[in-house]
User: What shape does this take?
Amino acid sequence: MGMGDQIRKQLAAAALKRQLERVSGEAAASNAHKVEAPAEDKPWNARARFEAMPLYQQVSLMRQMGDTLRVQSPFFRVHEGAAGATTTIGGREYINFANYNYLGLSSDALVTARAKDAIDRYGMSASASRMVAGERPVQRELERAIAQLYDTEDCVAFVSGHATNVTVIGALFGHGDLIVHDALAHNSIVQGAQLSGAKRLAFPHNDWRELDALLARVRHEYRNVLVVIEGLYSMDGDFPELERFVEIRQRHGVFLMVDEAHSLGVLGASGLGIREHSGVAPDDVDLWMGTMSKTLAGCGGFIAGCQPLVDMLRHLAPGFLYSVGLAPALAAGSLAALERMQAEPERVAALQARGQQFLCEARAAGFDTGTSAGYAVVPVITRSSLKAAQWANALFEEGINVQPIFYPAVEERAARLRFFICSTHEPDQITRTVETLARIAKR
Ligand code: PMP
Assistant: This one.
């Protein structure tokens, strides 16, 4: 591609970015139901059209961005088999860095056999809420196993990790309460806080000193206060100093919730997550939240904690009470994955070794890996959406599948490729990937 072409593409990308900024601003405003249509074109005077919604315009612009940059969309790719360290797309095998199958258990023969047995015994669906339609033994077995893992009194499982955060935070807190979360908190945490009606504040990423100062200023104005952090941040691959947050929890009299979506099976010598990594006591954290969709090779979310907490959620959290129980096959498969993780700590060790290898080799090649600690998530920060898209495309052509993250998902200067590493990646797959990327970056 000539220099003129490059400049034209960059100008087009910048124009699109400005348009996107404007449209996302409008979308946010319209979501907040604050925009009053002018009297002459009240929406009900014409046929209601989804295409007129700012949200749809945002989607169209995202598509245009791909066309203008002449990059193939990296989204919604169809995988033709189980995706792990490698995957097959369009009949071709790729080294795969775009999934959360951290311990390679999603297609493990023992795990899938247990899921199949559960289907044969209980059928596909739990078909209704557990409170009214009853339980399947395997749902409680999974919950007890997770409670044992966290050394808590009990645990409750939900059908989605995202819905777990939304319904749990939304149900437990309300007007007059305060929810404070890390600035890089997952969307589900933010949505839960918004649903709750509590005041919501964010503190700078991993900055416990700022959190401490914030609570010193405002704690007394609220009844219940919840602090939410994550065990491993999925955009940057870094983690909080949990013991500092535990100390703040005790001093300010607040609830502490840790989302272990990306740290269970990843941190700690036996994969027990950030609790094992940091050595805090099980009851130093009030809500241990996690997902079954990553290390546990299934789908769903959980909360492990004390009995009163789990009792409240089992009886009154809308996302539990008014939603179907976890499918028996998913409960059985995730329980099998949990047992496998505990029986084979070498999987955790392999994941940690591969993560460190990726981080060291990427840094040695001169890439900006941000604050990644080299556990399962390593970003390569490109600082340009265009570059992230082009590098991801070029890697794909070379048989390597990785997701670019670009504006508006992150700020333009934070655009990146995000590599998810799993225990089943071979060392030479990682070396080949970093070498290929270094070659592409030099072009
Ligand atoms: N919490 C965090 C930190 C996540 O990254 C995710 C999704 N990756 C979720 C919750 C939601 O989990 P699930 O995809 O299993 O619904």
